[in-house]
Structures
1.
Amino acid sequence: MISNKSLSLDQVDLIKRTVAKGATDDELSLFINVANRTGLDPFTHQIHFIKRRTWNKEAKRYDEIGSIQTGIDGYRSIAARTHEHAGTDDAIIEEKDGLPVKASVTVYRMIGGERRPFTATARFSEYVQKAKTKDGDEYTVGMWAKMPFSQLAKCAESLALRKAFPNEIADIRSDEEMQQADTVETPKKRKEKVIEVLAEPVDEKVTVNSMKSRITLLMKQAGLQPNENTPEAWARVVKANFDLELIEENYSKIIEALEATNQQPE
């Protein structure tokens, strides 16, 4: 168990830089509270905080939205600790043209001495993680491209576990459920506005930062995200896969290589 009071300033800073990157003080307090309640350890990455930029159509701006996440093993661990988890059936998957359409999973919990079933269904179209080409065409990325049946089964199991153990799991979403939130969405702009922006002087620093962000996103989509979120770890992955140093002069080449990787046919 951890708490705000038991953490040193260095530990708080470590959590903010790694498993709760971008969290405000209030969000960090909530994150630690949920970690304590669920018994998941942020220092071993059993639980983490993710902040995403989400397009607000009404306000016409990006909002920073945070969510507390764990993997399916985290959900299973929470359920097991209650000593009331009475088994989980294998996923029943409906498929079409070689892809899953929906998956259903039943989780059992002992309630009042009886084994009660909790069934939930996840649809592929609602959870699949996608990205867009420059022409606006969508394509499946990451683990959803490599193991779509397994990913959808995990989403269905997450939903079923949350139905069976609502009080224990209510504040957390599974990584598999939330990957669709990383789909690249580009808000539409009027043509004259685009021309106006392009006519402005180019800020070299902004361009470099944009390229860095693009590389990070493309690597996540390609399933090439390193285990550690450090510049050295990212550089090792780039070097191993594309034989390129992660330096400014190579950013364009790296982006081209990643885009080609993500657009390869299944």
Note: The mean pLDDT is 80.
2.
Amino acid sequence: MRGHDTRDGRLLQIEGFGVMDMMGMLKATSKEELIRFAVANSEYIETTVRAEAKDTGKPCRKLVMIQNLAGVSSRQIRSDFLAMLQAVLHVIVENYPERMAVAYFVNLPAPKLFSIGWGIIKGLFDENLKRKFVFMTASDWNTQLREVVADEHLPAYLGGTLRDPDDACSNLLGTGGIVPDSLFRMNDDSFSVVVVPARGAHRIEILAIAGSVVSWEFTTKGYDIKFGVYYVGTEEEAQEVLKTKHKGDTLVDNNRVQGASQEVISGEIFADKSGVYLLEWDNGYSFMRSKTLMYKYEVASPKENAE
């Protein structure tokens, strides 16, 4: 929600971070899409700030942000989510460094839980920016917040008098909630589903011409998996190479993909040679547990890339 408190040249922005289903968001979208959304939102704020100054005849150069962390739990403070958050924040910090006046974080979760998440992402910010973050615990945030934001600009659930149409200002803020399974990207019919057995692997051989782009998306149910990409050789060479344990030249290291069960992992490579490319999901390190894998891939020809 964006208010209109421009008495000191600042635009009020209130968000309900804690009520979002972070893991659901990661399954329904990608890190790249979230970054694009963050940039689009930042550009919208730039436009809004300029419009506020023009409409009121007062300077409006800075943002006051209120972030409600109510509902944040250990389920959300995970390495995969924090990595996504770091990527999004990095883009904002690098491109919109001086727009924020102060950010109030209210309803902090358990101190230990919060300190873990903050400890990971705070390295993105310089000391000047860090000083703009003000953290308020559940016991004192209400009083502190009302000292800096006028009641008429503060939703009733945060201690103010603003209602639209309810205490949570649902029309302005939105209520968040759980992302339904139907929006998860792996429910798309274009995803194939296989069970990779314990100590086994699933491989896809792809024929691509030089100049093509080979892309992929995948996720798993419940557990992580290793993933790697290889150039095997020409069609003739590949027939011989694949008869052995050798998989060709490594293009993407065969590493264990943390968070594969919480989000849709995506990537791509440029095929600089014509021939056979191999995508491999490796479960060889698991002695007892099979993995349900959902994946799709695409080969874009040089002509398609030019378009």
Note: The first strand starts at residue 10 and ends at 15.
3.
Amino acid sequence: MPSEEELMQEVARLKEELAREREKFDTVLQSIVDGVYTTDSDREVTFWNKGAERITGFSSAEVMGKTCKELLAHTDENGVSLCETACPLSETMKQGAPIYGKNVMSRTAWGKPAPISVSCAPLLAPDGKVVGAVEVFRDISEMKRLEKQKADIITMITHDLKTPLTVILGYGDMLVYRMELAGDKEGVEFASGIITSGERIQSMIEDFLSISKIESGVVPLNLQQFPVDDLVRRVVNDLLVLAGKKGVNLRLLTEPGIPPARFDTRLMERALSNLATNAIKFTPAGGVVTVSTRLLEDSAKPFVEITVADTGHGIPEADLDRVFDRFYRAKTSDGFEGAGLGLAIVKAFVEAHGGSVSAANEPGSGAMFKILLPLDRNVSGAVAPE
């Protein structure tokens, strides 16, 4: 059995080893470029690294023991306080789970709020009880500046393109009319080509503007109760002429009894129109595009499923996971038909309504896109930036 002196020596050795480990741990945390701080269960600061000092201007000495509300006073971009309603630290302690990448505004020692991205996690005792939280945050001022600069450039360019394009389309219509009066079939064909290309550019401009708005902030939703079948029927009717010119049979199959959903008809109509237009474009003459609806009540929350299926060549398997990426165009595309933004816009608009969209190849046929919209949803009313 060890003597009392040997036990005391062992205790001293373990204390020294523990101190060294704590020093290493503290050195690592202090070396992290991002701001890192911890709090107890009352949200009072217990640790504050040099990254937090650099970003906020508050020194470790002056923040210890103070609450995060007194120091950072997180708000949203409109200056509305999050401390009592949506504080990331409070949420992570209540939920007992991490919160990732929440963009907020933070108070600084210089008096000017700074945009930061925060991630939080609860601190757990051995028995699983939440005893505090840790928050990691980084300054995103430069990212916000670049995002605004990019959005301003895109808006300026697209706006400046709209005026001459409107003139081109107007003269194109006049040319078609005059060629038709003169009986010049070849002239009508050439002038119609001008209009088609101009309308394609116009569509691309609208896509660029939509993506720019999504990236730069929010796109407000005008939510209202509206019959889903009426929305789908409206889109199909608008595309009958396009399908007829392509020699494609456009069909509508609706399931009776689907209750009205709450959504922005303008955005959802555009999302569905993008899918149906793509299906028509990539379906050979004589093929079929089917737009259908059905009610899904298998889960706790009922969903309406809107499907757009075609009998084209389908989507290459290598492209299935990327078709909703911005500026990505599958290899099945023939010619320069667009900027690869149509499906990205579909995804953004559908997810803004609490829904989802997926792509698959229908066995023995072409591509199939499915939109799922929850019927009993709590929508925030904005498209959040990615």
Note: The two ends are 64 Å apart (CA to CA).
